[in-house]
Amino acid sequence: MSSNQPRQTKAQRREAARLKAKELREASARRERRNMIARRSFIGIAGLGVTGGLGYLVYRGVEAKKGTRDDKASSKFPAPSEGLATAKANQEGIPKQVLSDASWTYGEGSTLDTVAAAAPILDIYFDYSCPHCAEFDVLHTQEINQLLSGKKITLALHPAKILDQEWTSAVMNAMGVVLDEAPAQSLSFHGAAFEILAQAIQTKSQSNMTVEGLVAAATKVNVPKEVSDKFKAAIDSDKYGKWVKLGTEAFAARDLQSTPTIFFKGEKVDLSKLQTQTSLTELVAAATPTAQPSQQASQQPSPQPTQQG
């Protein structure tokens, strides 16, 4: 029985085969990016992770791209000494709680977008592909949580993609989903993402630096499944790419050159002084005003002037 459809010409068959091959290549590329999204980033950071060591006395300086900073760009972002940005970014492609310089804050425990009244600001500039940032976070996570619980600090987290690695974009896209849809778990997920990198450096294997690895990390810190299920689509579409770009722009505009960079009360902190699990607590305590005289002492009658005879 003959077909009603006209027989394709040789040119048509060749074009159909070309389109099919193109679809297969694109599908393969998407699959490769999804399953091994961190291959380039891990190859680029493996040696650096060994160099730094747990003491991380030597930090890798990463220069901001030449020519990216100008007076106009710099004026968009407050200097660390000027405190927090005062407005939200309020743009599509940026999480709704993120400030105009790409940062986000915690001041009352792990509650997103809060500020501890009268508490000093701890600014942390980081790249999710930076081994030393992972070391810093793993070392100080518990301490920072305690400081936040006691309302001793306001934590401002400043992301940037200065190492130009795909892993940073992947994590920030997943983090964007969490900030928007599971804010209560956002600080925990931030730490869990750095744990993936720290483990990769320790084991010299990037097998967990995948979308599935990020989903597993989210599950570990109680991010709802309906939220983590959106990671893949966000990463594939680079949903929060504008946020990544904004953070990198802010980093360059402030003339910062390495990660992690830490500011406390607007002053840059020497990283060699932050090598123990209590060093941030000690930094905060040293900045706390000395105690006022006791109430009993303040109620003592003040000395009367000697009366002349």
TrEMBL record:
Residues 12-30 have a biased composition (Basic and acidic residues). Residues 117-272 form the Thioredoxin-like fold domain. Keywords: Membrane, Transmembrane, Transmembrane helix. SUPFAM superfamilies: Thioredoxin-like. InterPro entries: Thioredoxin-like_fold, Thioredoxin-like_sf. It comes from the Bacteria. The chain crosses the membrane at residues 41-59. Residues 1-31, 287-309 are annotated as: Disordered. The keyword Transmembrane helix applies. This is Disulfide bond formation protein DsbA.
